[in-house]
């Protein structure tokens, strides 16, 4: 493994950490409705749990209401029950074969709790990135120990990985601040 491989590997893993963090942020709801909120809710479909998006059409009616249109007649009650029992705090109502899911307004206290959740998730992502930095630096030190690279190359590799880490952490901070602003916007 060369220094370029170490850097490329660390860069790819850090990019995956950012993608995982972005995915985690989509699960944290803001005051506005978006169909992705229901992605983590699974409904029993002939004995196996499947995401709601695989048994119904999920769309927005307005900024605060999601509509769920089941593709089969008998799925309405199951979908409504799954949404109600999820930990999202949503209260769906059925109108014929259309399920309306109004998004409750966030209280100030709940907004502050959600910002803490966002900060915690951001901190966990930063820890993951720092662990990746440590692993990359250990690889470089191992190459130096095995006399495959010089001390200067090892030092340069450590500096490059540190710069990559700093950029990644700055991007995570930017995502955290953006999500916090989104949550705190009334």
Explain this structure.
With 186 residues, the chain is of the alpha+beta class. It folds into two domains: 3-27 and 107-184, Ribosome-recycling factor (Topoisomerase I, Chain A, domain 4), CATH 1.10.132; 35-102, Gyrase A, domain 2 (2-Layer Sandwich), CATH 3.30.1360. Helix content is 58%, strand content 16%. The protein has four helices and six strands, in the order αββββαββαα. It has helices spanning 3-27, 75-85, 108-145, 151-184; strands spanning 42-45, 48-51, 56-62, 65-70, 93-95, 98-102. It has a four-stranded antiparallel sheet with strand order 3-4-6-5. Strands 1-2 form a two-stranded antiparallel sheet. Helix 1 runs antiparallel to helix 3 (108-145) and helix 1 packs parallel to helix 4 (151-184). It is elongated and about 75 Å long.
Summarize the entry for a quick read:
With 186 residues, the protein is α+β, with helices and mostly antiparallel strands. It is built from four helices and six strands; from the N terminus they run H-E-E-E-E-H-E-E-H-H. The chain has a four-stranded antiparallel beta sheet. The protein has a two-stranded antiparallel ribbon with strand order 1-2.
């Amino acid at each position: 493994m060369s220094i370029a491989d170490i850097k490329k590997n660390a860069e790819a893993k850090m990019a995956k950490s950012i993608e995982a963090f972005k995915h985690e942020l989509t699960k944290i709801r803001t005051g506005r409705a978006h169909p992705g909120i229901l992605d983590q809710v699974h409904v029993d479909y002939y004995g196996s749990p499947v995401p709601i998006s695989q048994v119904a059409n999920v769309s927005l009616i307005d900024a605060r209401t999601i509509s769920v249109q089941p593709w089969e007649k008998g799925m309405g009650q199951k979908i409504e029950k799954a949404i109600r029992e999820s930990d999202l705090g949503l209260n769906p109502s059925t109108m014929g074969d259309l399920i309306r899911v109004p998004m409750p307004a966030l209280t100030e206290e709940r907004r502050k709790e959600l910002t803490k959740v966002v900060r915690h998730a951001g901190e966990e992502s930063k820890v993951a990135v720092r662990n990746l930095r440590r692993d990359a630096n250990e690889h470089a030190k191992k190459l130096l120990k095995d006399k495959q690279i010089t001390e200067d190359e090892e030092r340069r590799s450590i500096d490059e990985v540190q710069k990559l880490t700093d950029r990644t952490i700055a991007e995570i901070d930017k995502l955290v601040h953006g999500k916090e602003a989104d949550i705190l916007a009334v």
